[in-house]
User: What shape does this take?
Amino acid sequence: MNKTLSRAIRLSRLNSEYYCRRERRCLTPDAVYKTKIKPHKVSCKVVLPPNVRLHLTESEAQDLDESIHRAMESVLSKFFKGQNLSSTTF
Assistant: This one.
């Protein structure tokens, strides 16, 4: 991917309308998603709006961590097709 295209993709992601199209109701209004995609690294940071604060127990935090992991795993799994995957389970 050339730098111009990469820059355009990054800039488009700054616009929340890019993800919350009219035909689909946004489930996290005013949350700001910041994603970085590189050949060997993908990261996502979500900045919550001022009126949303997480007051989680340790158990709830672990559940949230696992849910985020599973969601990212589901999204990224298509890039692992044909790989020699170990049978390690966590």
User: Anything to note?
Assistant: The chain has a mean pLDDT of 80. The chain has one domain: 3-80. The helical segments are 3-13, 58-76.
